[in-house]
Fold these 2 entries.
Entry 1:
Amino acid sequence: MSPDDKFIDSIKKAYFLCARRPDGTITSVSPTVKTLLGYDQDEFSEVYEQLPLHPQAHYDKLVNDSTASELFIQPYEIQINHKDTTPHWLKITEVPIIGEDGKINSIEYLAQDITAHKLREKDLLDSEINLREVLSNTIKALAMTVEARDYFSFGHHQRSSSFARIIAQELAMKPAKIDTLRLAGVIHDIGKICIPPEILNKRNSLSNIEFSFIRNHPETGYNILKDIDLPDPLADIILQHHERIDGSGYPNRLPGEQILPEAKILMVADVMEAMASDRAHRPALGRKAIID
């Protein structure tokens, strides 16, 4: 036996699962199915029928493929229960055995047990979900802290966040961007925590000095959040949510091409919600005014 044949033989002993003809008939089952999945070879022949492997039509196409000698079948993953019912995951590599006529005589299945990897992956995903839930709840708590100081803004953050999310979905933004925008909406006025309540709730027009406090809140919010491990570009969205397309906004008078798309969406959602709600200095403006 040549070194290459020995190498191939050792690979088969380590990973060979079973072999079948293109018509679906199993020709051999490896003893490794016992250590891998707990089944005897005869038992595995029955289990095999339930595996989510390629359908028969896939093999029919391969058999009739004139370029079968150059064939590469992309490895894929399947889930199968161990005989003790615990879930297992295998990475399957199909090796077509080509006859002298250039057609496929049989297909050998090599299997790599990736169960440990899949379980770690699930644990990481669960941890990420839990962390995002904690982050979301913390952000909501911060938003409620701001709203508690401003009677007329109660519910403003959540409604602005919902408007922004709906707009982003209509624009077919990626889910990750939509979620970041949703979080930014919930906390976009966090900088108002540094504004005295008597200014936030003032019923008359603001003086220039008082309005300067208001104009500072996007930058204050950005400075509060910029060093926290939040999804990018959440802090920048908050910094820019009072900019305007014509460059008349604050704090940096950015022109439209320099404003983040997420910030543009949030600025619209923020204004919509503000116009739809009563404020200390005026009642809600109504649907027509908002549409205009």
Entry 2:
Amino acid sequence: MTATIETDQLQALRFPVGMFEFGKTYTDEDIQQFIKKIEGFPARLKKLTAGLTAEQFDTSYREGGWTIRQVIHHLADSHMNAYIRFKLALTEDTPAIKPYNQTAWAELEDSKTALPQVSIDLLTSLHARWTI
């Protein structure tokens, strides 16, 4: 029983918004709510991380996981990729969706050392474009 609880807790930490559900349908109201969440995300992230020290940014949120700094830079990387994929889907008949190695990207120097504010600023601008 304990192993199941630990596995469930680990899954909740790894996928805080839940696992992807293929084939799920959404209403226009759902879509507008998602757009509002995307629009407000950078401000929410900025508020959540305000006042953190360099030591806190370099702390892992779970054992074996990325640091808070790496997660913030991953968010910028992931959202940039998503934005480009949306643009390709809107402008090409059969766009190729190229994956990227998220783990390798998180180990690059910029992900490990750049100021988190750099990616928060990037997300602010990107989300402003994404939600027009």
